[in-house]
Specification:
Helices cover 31% and strands 23% of the residues. It is α/β, with parallel strands linked by helices and 663 residues long. The protein folds into four domains: 102 residues, GIY-YIG endonuclease; 177 residues, P-loop containing nucleotide triphosphate hydrolases (Rossmann fold), CATH 3.40.50.300; 176 residues, P-loop containing nucleotide triphosphate hydrolases (Rossmann fold, 3-Layer(aba) Sandwich); 94 residues, Alpha-Beta Plaits (2-Layer Sandwich), CATH 3.30.70. The protein has a seven-stranded parallel beta sheet with strand order 8-9-7-10-11-6-12, with helices on both faces. The longest helix has 17 residues. The structure holds adenosine-5'-triphosphate and zinc ion. The site of zinc ion has 8 residues, from loops.
Length: 663
């Protein structure tokens, strides 16, 4: 009697056997409905076998094998199996995540009537490639088999043009191409650009903001081989593509490629594995590659392709450091920046003031009694949002009205401390009454529609001064923008996270790169109290490589990634004691593993997380480190078994994060 082994979306690292008399090998990769407890669940068939290890009379029968769509192909199952192994996540959780929600639930989207074609503008003549662009395209198109290529190109160097040419070559050969882009906002512009370039191609988008049916349809189109190009955010790495011949990861350094909950995967890393699995090339592109990627390119493991100059503008923007140590700032702005803004206004050009902190002020305080606005649920301050008179926790979303008087002592003179984008916006509007000031952050661009409207306003040229967070940093071309001022950047210089400098450098380089992209020369002003800091000096010289090398030297000495490999075990519970006790037990459990496994890793002491309390849960973490990735993997696999067996207090939850990005 045939049985099927099914991956179910449950936090248990095993498959579930069911009787399925009419099943055949061709059912592997099909979705199946099975009884589970009192309910029914949908899973994916991983194996069809003649017998189970469990006695047949203990097994239940499947309810139905869904044969209404093609089976998920073996490569797709292998990709999920790799993620399950590498990220130590049950296979059923992985397959469930990798399927669009509608398909995961066992449903199918309705067939769309004749697909409406979006009106595509008439083709514009292709730009003549620069020699460096041509060399990059040739290198990508000519390689055979698996290769990882790093396209390191300064901002505005025409990386996208290189991707499009390479994709063109792949389509001409009858292949499919997958292009991954960072979260938020970038995709609509890019979709337009790709659609305009390939009017005859079937382009499928995949991101979490899409309606269920559209996502499921895109998945089915990709699975059937009907899609030529799949363009999407990190989850698109799981799109099945039978003729896949090229993967592109744009802005490969972007942290949004790493998922921070559930399946904690890095879409970039999974994409590299997938390219290897399929023996195809993968292009990682960035002006500021992640240090991991840059390291691989330096050692020759990845092939480095360089675009050292801008494609249209004559030169890179001039970067200047504004030393604010001896200056009395006006609401946080230096005389130099104010003068620069004034000058741009007079010339009818746009400016951008970059401050990576939204809200009006990070905290509201009562100086006489010492009260400050704290979140009841998190170990964090409530941020003052004057725009709608709320205090908000940026971690858990809790919000409340701004109190009229201090809740502790009744004093009515509450003071906002520090500065966010709303405060800058207010100040700039007062200071430059004739200017139109536009704030762009997650509050003002809270929906895709609002975000599109804001972008349209900028492109029309009707905004003079933009105040924005990193939302504006990536991928945009604003021809009138000639000045970028960065304020409040110093805070990230001395952050505890060893990746903070890497992130700050990338952010400043990206945001500075928005200026002077057309015929007008660009200027970047960075306000700082540390004018000689090597990070800023490297920005002045546009010298990513110098910065990256010095960071890598520091990491090598400290034994941080990419010179070591890490995993983080995190636990959250009602009390910190419980969390730390669980982590201590987990550490203890490692000591009973064979020495050959345990000796290759270092387990650090359990400690409270930086944000100790989130949503009333107390959180702790335990870092595991090894000099060898395979050794770490082998250890984690054995360790996980012990962890699943540990006793835990009610309400405690834990997870393992492999290659964690946040500490
Ligand atoms: N060879 C070329 N000749 C003329 N224009 C070009 C050429 N290559 C690209 N461009 C144009 O230059 C601009 C910047 O190119 P693109 O957006 O591809 O750069 P990028 O490197 O991806 O930028 P960033 O990383 O800063 O977002 C675009 O408007 C693009 O159409
Ligand atoms: Zn909170």
């Amino acid at each position: 009697m045939n049985i099927v082994r099914v991956a179910l979306d449950l936090p248990l690292p095993r498959l579930f056997d069911y009787l399925a008399p009419d099943s055949a090998q061709s059912d592997i990769g099909r979705r199946v409905i099975v009884p589970f407890g009192k309910a029914s669940r949908t899973g994916v068939i991983i194996e069809v076998a003649a017998a189970s290890e469990h006695p047949d009379d203990k097994l239940k029968a499947v309810t139905e094998i869904l044969r209404d769509m093609p089976a998920l192909p073996p490569e797709w199952l292998a990709l999920c199996e790799f993620c399950a192994r590498y990220y130590q996540t049950p296979l059923g959780e992985v397959t469930s995540f990798a399927l669009p929600p509608m398909l995961r639930r066992g449903k199918l989207p309705r067939i769309r009537k004749a697909a409406q074609k979006i009106a595509v503008p008439p083709p514009t003549p292709l730009p003549q490639l620069l020699a460096s662009q041509q060399a990059a395209v040739d290198a990508i198109v000519e390689v055979a088999g698996f290769h990882t290529l790093l396209l390191h190109g300064v901002t505005g160097s025409g990386k996208t043009e290189v991707y499009l040419r390479a994709i063109d070559a792949v389509l001409a050969r009858g292949g499919q191409a997958l292009m991954l882009v960072p979260e938020i906002a970038l995709t609509p512009q890019l979709e337009g650009r790709v659609a305009a370039r390939f009017p005859a191609a079937h382009i499928v988008c995949a991101n979490s903001g899409m309606a269920d049916a559209a996502r499921a349809r895109g998945f089915l189109d990709a699975l059937a081989g009907r899609a030529d190009i799949v363009l999407g955010t990190r989850l698109a790495v799981f799109m099945p593509m039978p003729r896949l011949q090229l993967i592109v990861v744009d802005e490969e350094h972007d942290a949004s490629f790493k998922q921070q909950d559930g399946l904690r995967y890095s879409a970039r890393d999974v994409a590299v594995w997938r390219a290897h699995q399929l023996s195809i090339p993968i292009v990682l592109g960035s002006a500021t590659p992640s240090l991991e990627t840059f390291h691989h390119a330096s050692t020759g493991r990845y092939k480095m392709l360089e675009l050292p100059e801008r494609a249209v503008a004559d030169a890179m923007p001039v970067v200047r450091i504004v030393d604010t140590r001896r200056e009395k700032l006006q609401e946080g702005l230096s005389a130099a920046l104010l003068a620069g803004l004034q000058q741009r206004l007079e010339r009818g050009e746009q400016s951008l003031v970059f401050l990576n902190r939204r809200g009006y002020a990070p905290v509201l305080a009562c100086p006489p009694c010492g009260w400050i606005s704290r979140c009841q649920r998190c170990a964090a301050n409530l941020v003052l949002h004057l725009a709608d008179q709320r205090l908000r926790c940026h971690h858990c979303g809790f919000e409340t009205r701004v109190p009229r008087a201090c809740p502790d002592c009744g004093n009515v003179d509450l003071l906002p401390f520090g500065r966010g984008t709303q405060r800058l916006e207010t100040m700039l509007a007062e200071r430059f009454p004739e200017a139109s000031v536009l704030r762009i952050d997650r509050d003002s661009a809270s929906t895709p529609k609002k975000w599109q409207a804001l972008l349209a306003t900028i492109h029309e040229g009707s905004a003079d001064i933009l105040v924005g967070t990193q939302m504006l940093a990536k991928g945009h071309d604003f021809p009138l923008l000639t000045l970028v001022g960065a304020v409040g950047a110093d805070a990230a210089l001395f952050a505890a996270d060893f990746r903070a400098p890497e992130r700050l450098f990338a952010q400043l380089m990206q945001v500075g790169g928005r200026s002077g992209r057309a015929d007008l020369p660009g200027e970047v002003l960075i306000q700082t109290e540390y004018p000689d800091h090597p990070l800023y000096r490297a920005l002045v010289d546009h010298d990513y490589v110098r910065f990256a090398r010095s960071q890598l030297d520091e990491r090598r000495i400290a034994g941080f990634p990419p010179f070591s490999f890490q995993a983080m075990l995190r636990a959250e519970a009602r009390s910190m004691e419980q969390s730390l006790a669980f982590l201590a037990a987990a550490r203890e459990a490692a000591t009973i593993l064979p020495n050959s496994l345990a000796d290759a890793v270092t387990l650090y002491d359990p400690v409270p997380m930086r944000l100790q309390r989130l949503m009333t849960l107390e959180r702790g973490q335990l870092l595991v480190e090894s000099l060898s990735r395979p050794a770490l993997q082998a250890f984690l696999t054995a360790w996980m078994e012990k962890l699943y067996a540990l006793k835990m207090p009610g309400g405690l939850r834990w997870h393992l994060d492999v290659d964690p990005l946040e500490f």
